[in-house]
Amino acid sequence: MRVGVVTFPGTLDDRDAARAVRAGGLEAIELWHGDADLKNVDAVILPGGFSYGDYLRCGAISRFAPVMTSIIEQANKGMPLLGICNGFQVLCESHLLPGALTRNSDLHFLCKDQVISIENTNTPWTSSFSKGQEILIPLKNGEGSFQCDDATLASLEGEKRIIARYVGENPNGSRNLIAGITNTRGNVVGLMPHPEHAIDTLTGPSADGLGFFTSILNAMVK
Amino acid sequence: MSLDTVAQAVARPDTAQPFKELGLKPDEYARIKEILGRRPTSSELAMYSVMWSEHCSYKSSKVHLKQFGEKAPKSDALLVGIGENAGVVDVGQGYAVTFKIESHNHPSFVEPYQGAATGVGGIVRDILTMGARPIAVMDPLRFGPADAPDTRRVLPGIIAGVGGYGNCLGLPNIGGEVVFDETYIGNPLVNALCVGVMRHSDIKLAKAAGAGNLVVLYGAKTGGDGIGGVSVLASETFGDGGSTKRPSVQVGDPFVEKVLIECSLEIFAEDLVVGIQDLGGAGLSCATSELASGGSGGMKVQLDKVPLRDPSLSPEEILMSESQERMCAIVEPSKIVRFIEICKKWDVTVTVIGEVTDGKHLEITWNGELIVDVPPRTVAHDGPVYNRPLAQPEYIDRVNAQTISVPMPQSSAEIKAALLKLVSAPNMADKSWVTAQYDKYVQGNTIQAQPDDSGMVRIDEKTNLGVAIATDANANWSYLNPYQGAKLALAEAARNIATAGARPLAVTNCLNFGSPEDPGVMWQFAESVRGLADGCLEMGLPVTGGNVSFYNQTGDVAILPTPVIGVLGVIDDVRTRTPMSFNKAGLELYLLGTTHSDLAGSEWAFLHGQRGGNSPTADLQNEMNLIEVLLAGRSEKIFTAAHDLSQGGLAMSITEMVLRHMVGATISLKDTAIDLLSETPGRVIVAVESSQAGALLDLCAKYKISLSKLGTTGGDSLVINETTISLQELKTAHTSTFPKLFG
Amino acid sequence: MAKIVVDVMLKPEILDPQGNAVASALPRLGFTFATSVRQGKRFEIEVAGEPTPAQLAEVEKAAEVLLSNPVIENYVVRVEK
Amino acid sequence: MAKIVVDVMLKPEILDPQGNAVASALPRLGFTFATSVRQGKRFEIEVAGEPTPAQLAEVEKAAEVLLSNPVIENYVVRVEK
Ligand SMILES: Nc1ncnc2c1ncn2[C@@H]1O[C@H](COP(=O)(O)OP(=O)(O)O)[C@@H](O)[C@H]1O
Ligand SMILES: [Mg+2]
What we know:
A: alpha/beta; Rossmann fold; 5 helices; 11 strands; B: alpha+beta; seven-stranded mixed sheet; globular; binds adenosine-5'-diphosphate
């Protein structure tokens, strides 16, 4: 079972995502932004960071990388794809997911341990969780506020495509406390907080994040 | 528009040169002429003036800094000592760690965001230059009073700049300091520390060896950043209006630096460089002269090959430009193709600008004309050395003679009020408003960060080897007694490492002072260096490098002497570290060390406008014994938690412990006010299971560390004798200060 | 050489925390003129020679696919005199 | 109701990492028109009624002290029709 982890110039959490993939029991494969070859991976993670410095808009420039062309093609055929933080931003810019991520409402970069509740356990990335389960994982970004128009929001809600919500005070101004969403097909997931930084209590606030990686293992074994 | 060449310098020896405007003294200018046997060209003048500046030549501090070498303790851990971009220490298992602090004070006052950002960028390049992967940063900061209008301008920008740059590089921020004092108005201190790790065999040095090897410049293009002074020369050479306006501030591009890091590490991994130097202060002047002096001295550079962002730059300006995110490498011709390939992969601009020769001179040409022809050592290392006059300032005796009179809380109501006042004071208050703007998780190896006593990162995922770093300075003590102040800061930083169970190994420092031309300031500086050198010798810790920042003053008023001391320690298994606090009830709390009435220079005295009396005297033998107790307590699994006492004394430390996991404590004190507020050094609170109390007793007896029982953990309040304060109330007091001030 | 300007603003219905922050800072500094503030981006693009209609069409396309995010932003392209 | 626009750009001699990022992204997407790109900020300020000269002077002042950072940026104030 091979999970590709993409590195764009300016990607930061690629090694962490690969570590988490291995902790979940899968093989992590490095993918380079400039290379359209997906090396026969079964799933892909777009990790966090500041690809292209996050200049212009987060994810705006990365979206055009050669590797994205292949990823978009495979995702449209149903390949599981997870975008974390900057990766989520890339997915929105690529229109694989609706909406956009904008400046945090208090305009500061925010790094904190955040409780989120898992609302949709039908995706290949969330199946190990139980519905409504609350988990604690790091949130760290400057532009994590999920915004979209009312119609999009209504369909996200109506189709149960919100996979995770912030619990407690809204940390960044996201509409309806959205922390993560999925596409209509359910294979593409974007998540603002960082499960890859919560795979053990030595380096993270909990090991709750591991669930995303064991989910994908289950999805592939099936 | 005339180019000043070596030929012209010979032909027209009497041309007047603006050496004064460039900050050179007449005798310094005379020495340059003597070295060269002629007048310098304007490019040579540019190089000498910037390399002989206080900032680059350490001319006022050199005679004192020597002590770090002379008094250096024997240390097997030191792999690279003072003199390179950063010192390197052996931390075992084949790993080497390099760390260093640098200041970016003045630029951060002028443009807080960019000043702080480029400060982080600069120190990270220093660490990278040693061949190491940067793994974490820290940021000791000082500001004017928290409610001063200028602090409101400067602080948010500096915090955003440190975070903006460090976060974008993917470097976890694992600690720092935020301290407020009147004297830092107009002189905020932005010190930045970076730590990096490599294998022993990967250490790189700044030397240009091997005739025929290529001089390669890579990274950002060169612009007119930070060349303030030298524009004098440019305008002389070009006539007024000939050159465009030069920016007064440097702007950083963290994305370019991130790419530069990954590109450089790939280049190092393939062993493609002979020597390497980052471009920081004094830019190419510094990099070329230092690299050449590191080798046999011979180097030829074609300056017109340097890729420019601003094509109107003169050769003098190119030599001095402090544009960020650039590196200079020495590469064997057979490896240049691969070197360029890697740069292309990362989209990094790369240019061969010269080669190493078997001569003794650094020769720089501009479109074929020789404009610099100098022995490089005379530029890089043989700058002037000053033995500046120093004298104990008159204030010392006066303030030392003062007795402190501050309210000593007695009744329950007074004790509660005192505690709430202390924990909400800007210097003591929770710094999450600051640290939440820093990524502490990136790289996935952070074991400890704010608010822990020290930052700790894992450097090997299999063996769990790790390093811990703490930085400290108590400027109030340094003001009262700079010799003791430096020793006490060293002791505190070492203790902060040891509470977690890491063994202190090496020291770096950033010495922030007022004007060296003031004999009183110079005395403070000399005393601080003497104190640090003596302290390091006694504790067996080598100084591996550091930085001096002078002229931090407004008018005649200098900042408090602020020697920021960084200590690096090693821990063989980060999983077994001692955490800073407890999360369960029923543990016993003990105080290690003895409490005296040490209110001079304390936060409580500061809060009552008093800065007099005598600082405590450092007892480093005792500190070392305490460290042994802390290390043994960790390895013998005696401790459940350990937290050091410093500013704010026991009151502050116990508050930090109970708020960490919101588990309360009940303690009883004899001399309540002093016990709570005194800042006697050499003390630590530990929490142990009752079953371990006997072992703790034995351990302390073995190392002659006094021990007193404070109480037990549990409940949802902090109970001190008859005074009960709910954790919620304590937390609100502690956490609301920063949001209120800067929110 | 000519300058083409692309102005990119958040759509009116999208929350603009930066604009809001400015709007609430102004009165604190004694400036009372604003009833609302929105903050956006301005790109100044230099092209060689006079911009041709074909070139302007290209800029429009770049504004749409790269310089703005149509999900949340509107843009305007114009030639600056 | 009128709209006052404040354009804030980095001074020409100051490095513009964002503008550079856009400038190097454009050709990768096949857009070759730009010889240089600079990125700045645009503020749209709504005021009640026609802006008076006094009001415009206030806006100038706000642009100088709040909307721009005079150390590295220039600004231009104008009324949008
Ligand atoms: N306070 C100090 N203590 C010890 N070493 C110092 C101190 N200040 C400077 N040094 C050493 O002097 C050398 C030159 O310092 P610096 O100019 O800051 O280095 P760089 O050129 O890399 O910026 C370095 O090796 C540095 O570690
Ligand atoms: Mg250096």
